[in-house]
Amino acid sequence: MSFLRDKHALLLTVVLLLQAAVYYAASSRREIIPNVAPLATFPSALGDWHMIAEYPLTDDTQRVLRADDTLNREYLNVSQAKRASLWIAYYKTQRYGQTPHSPKACLPGEGWEPIENTTIPIVVPFHREPIVANKYVVVGSDASKEVVVYWFQSHNRVVASEYAARFWLVLDSMRYHRSDTSLVRVVVRVENDGTDAATRTAMGFVQALFPDLLRQLPI
User: Fold this and answer.
1) Which of 208, 207, 206 is nearest to 186 (CA)?
2) Using CA atoms, how far apart are residues 131 and 122, in angstroms rounded to an integer?
3) DSSP letter (8 states) at residue 25
4) Are 66 and 157 in contact (CB under 8 A)?
5) Are 128 and 137 in contact (CB under 8 A)?
6) 30: number of Cβ within 10 Å
7) Total-model pTM
8) In this predicted model, what pLDDT tens digit does every residue of 159-178 receive, in sequence order?
9) In Å, how far are 123, 151, 192 from 197, measured between CA atoms?
10) CA 85 to CA 146: how far, in whole Å?
C-alpha cells in the first residue's frame, strides 16, 4: 500500500472510488443528455481566422476515441500568416466508459516527445477570470515542434487537470445527472520565430474561438 503515500495516486484513488460509488448509486436513474448541435455547424470563420481544411477521422480512429461527435480543422489568419489546428471531441455521456483521450497519453503514442508540460492563463471573452489551459510542447521524429494547448470543458467550466475533470464528473453526475464533456485542443507549429511566438498564436486563436465554443457546447 506504499503507493497511497503518493498524493497524486491517493487523489486519483479517491476520485475513482467516488466515481464508482456515484455510478453505482445512479445506475437506476435516467441520465440527462443535452441537445447539442452537430460540431459540423461550428463556424468556419472565427474573427480573423478562417477555416482552410477539414479532416474527417478514419473509422479506426473513431472506434478508439468513442466520441459522439468530433471536429478536426485547420484555420488560417491571413493578416498574421499564422495557422492553427482545432480539435474538439464531444462525449454526451461518460457513464459507459467513453472518456476523452488526454493528449499527454495520445501524442507520445504517435511518436511525439514532450519537452514542456505546464499550464497557462488565457484571457477570453465572457469570462470574468482567465481560463487555465494545458500547454504541452512536443517534438517529432523529424525535429518539428508543436505547441499544444488543451482543456476539458463542460457546463461552461474549463478544466486543465485530468484529476479535476474526474472530480467534476462525479459532482455533475450527483447534482445534475449529467456526464457530458468535451476535449478542446489547439495546435500551432513552432516556426523560426520560436516557441513563445507559437504560444502567443495559440492563445490568440483560443480567444477568437471561445465565444463560439460557449454557444456550441451545452451549458
Assistant:
1) 206
2) 5
3) H
4) no
5) no
6) 7
7) 0.86
8) 999 989 988 988 888 888 89
9) 17, 20, 9
10) 11
